[in-house]
Design a protein that fits this description.
Blueprint: H1 2-23, H2 30-46, H3 50-53, H4 56-76, H5 82-103, H6 109-135
Helix pairs in contact: 2-4, 4-5, 5-6
């Protein structure tokens, strides 16, 4: 009985150790974070480029890129860097609102414009904080 209890205790402590390792937030590698930031900036800049917005083919190609950047942010950044994920989510939100407004301009554009402006403002705030966090990685 003692050997059985000892084995159970060892297995239990090993499982706790494995769980504890997963729960510890980690800082992303600087190169990975900077690569994400560069890619994110390039995609984000396109969302306000009028010439880009006029091209339906380019617009349709940007939507999956923005979603992929949001997914990368969720995987790359821990809770300490959640502002980076928030920035990516905000850009996705206002991008989808822009597309909707272009496709259905008669559907109360004031509400859509208000949402776009709000998401852009919140995204800008989050982006600034994200940029500062990434710049501070050693």
């Amino acid at each position: 009985m003692t050997i059985k209890n000892t084995l159970l205790l060892i297995l239990f402590s090993a499982s706790l150790t494995a769980y504890a390792d997963e729960a510890i937030p980690t800082t992303p590698q600087k190169a990975d974070a900077e690569k994400w930031l560069t890619d994110f900036r390039a995609a984000r800049d396109k969302t306000s480029d009028a010439l880009f917005l006029n091209d339906a083919n380019k617009r349709s190609q940007l939507t999956p890129v923005l979603k992929e950047l949001r997914d990368r942010a969720e995987k790359l950044f821990s809770d300490d860097f959640s502002v980076c994920t928030k920035a990516a989510e905000a850009v996705n939100g206002y991008w989808m609102s822009e597309i909707f407004l272009m496709q259905k301009p008669s559907y109360n554009p004031h509400i859509n414009l208000s949402g776009i402006v709000t998401l852009a403002w919140q995204g800008g705030q989050a982006y600034s904080a994200c940029y500062d966090l990434i710049a501070g990685i050693k």
